[in-house]
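pasting for the record
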Amino acid sequence: MYKKTLLSALVSASIVAGTTFSLVYADDRVEVEQPYAVEVEQPDVEVTDDGRKFDSSVRLEDTLVGWQDELLTEAGKDLKDAEEARAEDPDNEELQKAVADAEDNVTGLKEEQQKIEDLMSGKTEVKNEDGEVVTLTDEQIFALNRALNNATNNGLVVDFNSDYLEEVIAGEYNKQQTNAVTKALEEEAKFDKLSDKFTSKYDLTDNEKFLDKADMMTVKGERQKDKFLAKVDKFDRNNLEVDHQIKARKAARDSAKSTARDASKNSARKDAKRAAKNNAKKVAKENARNKEKSNNGKKKT
């Protein structure tokens, strides 16, 4: 008689091989059959409403465009607040500027959505330092999806605009560089959310110390963003093969580029948001208080 261990080994080996085998115990014959192939049901490919196959790149595009859409909704509210405040005091220059800044913010966010879509689809051509046309790699898409998914789970709306997306593509960022950029913008979004909470407290209390705290959170967010953006060069594999002078020149060049970009776009957008959200409300409430004092004075007389 076969030992149990040998029997088990024979059965297992035959099942793995996908064969039909027979075992004999004295006069009894036992036959066990194992089919050659097992059919596994494949899940249907998920397709979006507009007919696109839902893959990693589509997920990334939807995330980035979705955030711009949320920012646009918020910007529309800021514009409405600024316009209502200006209506109360049409000649107020601060309020006029707040409305203009808010309008620019809305226009810019509308354009951002299209810019992101064009970059993701390849409609907007991107070239690296050597003048070669480059696109997002699978590694970059994976890193972006993973990092930005973390921000989504934390309830953050990240302003990952087309400028940053183009930098990732043109700079041919590796995984560490891509993570540094996303972390920088996630930190900015985190402190912007705290800033908005303090602004809401100001709306309820008229206590201007909450506006000061809101500004502090915004400044801290900018510092954290700069801290992580500075790591992009550190994780550049090419920098490991060049001398310190070349790295210094590159750092200076990139710093100037970053400063110009932030000054012309990101900081301008931030200023527009602050102007619409803080200045307009502050001036409007100030006018309301002055009118109330004036009315009380008339009643006394």
